[in-house]
Every structure is written in structure tokens, then in C-alpha cells.
Amino acid sequence: MHQGEYLKKLVDNSVLTVTEFAERLGISRPNMYVLYKKKKLDDFYLDKIRHMGLDLDNVNNQKGLVKEPKSSYPETQQDTAIPFYEANVTGGNVNNFGEQVKNASYFLTIPHFKDCTIAVRVNGHSMYPKYCNGDIVVCKKINDHSHIPYGEPHIVVMADYSVLKYVHPHNTDKTLFTLKSANEKFEAMEIKRADVLGVYLVRGKLELT
């Protein structure tokens, strides 16, 4: 492939039209097609192209004006694809979480939940009637555990289990969390903050029908 052909490939991959590219080189559109046929371009044109941040010697890896590759998925779908893990997050008796979520079972496309990172199934009745056994909760990961929105439902992940509870600060001990249930039949839990591996704020749910 000679330099004129490389130039055509460069223009085809550019965000500029042929006319706009020609104007950058200081020539007319018809003269661009003349350049496409030249085996070797004059240094004048090569310098102009380099000043645009492009390089005829490295057409495949341009930075300056070259278009970004398009995703193979529609943007809206890509933004809202949430991994669903067939792992029972308990509302009562605890259940191992970590071993079950290595690979997503499938992905959910849910509008208005673009910031969510995980969806899991509820197991148990301690969060009834807010969350029922079999419901799917859609959650956003909380990276900074010092800024947890207290009083809201969260999935709290420990080394051997996870629970779905309302998270509160402990009344007297800053090293602890107090986890409460929606169902008043279940007593509150106290856990060490240092033992918490992950916290996910529940943003919504899909009810089992």
C-alpha cells in the first residue's frame, strides 16, 4: 500500500470529511483524490499531516482525529446491563455469599439503574414486608464505608455470609454496625466494621410473581 492509499485510509477513519481534511492541507477536495493516487507524497503534505497529530507510517494506531471504535452493543443497553448472581442474600439466616458470585448467571437491562453494579435474590423473611423471599434486589456498591447512608437497606458482605438489613451506626461503639430487620420478630445484629468486606445500597427490587 503506497502513501496515497494510506492517506485515503486515514481520511476514511477521521472525524473530518474529505472537504474538511483538504482544507487542513490547504488544497481543494478534487486535489485530495489526486493525492490518493500518489505513491509518494511531497514533504509539504507529510508535514501538514504530522502537524494534525497523524502519521502515515502508523495508520492503525492514530490518536489525533481518528474516530473511536464503536461498541458492539447499543449504548443504552451497555450502560444498564447489571450482572445477576443466583446467590441467595439472606434476610434471616445467613448464607455464604462470596463463593456463589464468581460468575454472573445472566445480565439484567433495567432503565434508571445505570449506577447499580449487582442484582441478587433475597432469601428469608426478616425483611418482610419490605422485601419478600425470592425478590431480586438491585444494588449500588458503596466504596467508602465511612459514608454509608444510614437507615437505608443494604447488602452487607462478610467473609462467610451476607445479609440484607437496614444499616445503622452503633449507639456507643464506633467500631460496630447495627443491622436491623424490617420484620420486628427478628432481633438486631451487631457486627464489627473491620469485618465487613462489601456494602451495597439497595436501589430497587424485582418482585417474584
Main attributes of the structure:
5 helices; 209 residues; Umud Fragment, subunit A; 20% helix; 434 Repressor (Amino-terminal Domain); 9-stranded mixed sheet; alpha+beta
Task: Kindly summarize this structure in a few lines.
This protein has 209 residues and is α+β, with helices and mostly antiparallel strands. The protein has helices at 3-12, 18-25, 29-36, 43-51, 75-80; strands at residues 81-90, 106-109, 118-123, 136-141, 153-157, 162-169, 176-180, 189-192, 198-206.
Structure description:
The chain is an alpha+beta fold and 209 residues long. The protein has 2 domains: 3-61, 434 Repressor (Amino-terminal Domain); 75-206, Ribbon (Umud Fragment, subunit A), CATH 2.10.109.10. The chain has 5 helices and 9 strands, in the order H-H-H-H-H-E-E-E-E-E-E-E-E-E. Strands 2-1-3-4-9-5-6-7-8 form a 9-stranded mixed β-sheet. Strand 7 (176-180) and strand 8 form a beta hairpin. Helix 1 (3-12) crosses helix 3. It is elongated and about 85 Å long.
Topology:
Layout: H1 3-12, H2 18-25, H3 29-36, H4 43-51, H5 75-80, E1 81-90, E2 106-109, E3 118-123, E4 136-141, E5 153-157, E6 162-169, E7 176-180, E8 189-192, E9 198-206
Parallel strand pairs: 1-3
Antiparallel strand pairs: 1-2, 3-4, 4-9, 5-6, 5-9, 6-7, 7-8
Helix pairs in contact: 1-3
